[in-house]
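Tutorial, part two.
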Amino acid sequence: MSLDRYLQPHQARRRAPTTYEDLLGDAIERAFAAGIHDLPGLVRALNGSGLASPSGKAWTEEIYRQEIAALAA
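Running the prediction step on this input gives:
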């Protein structure tokens, strides 16, 4: 079986991630590693991480949903 048939990790990437995207990903990974798997807990972890939301306001569930949707577009 040829491994080149499988998706490469960055195959779908259109551009390199920004510093903000890297920091957001790192904060989300730290939350998951700490056993946080629910949205309210993730929002609390993001607020405790020191990484501001794009608007500079505290993270809320709605801001998180909007930001992840925007990044996925």
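The chain has three helices and no strands. In part three we will examine how such features are distributed along the chain.
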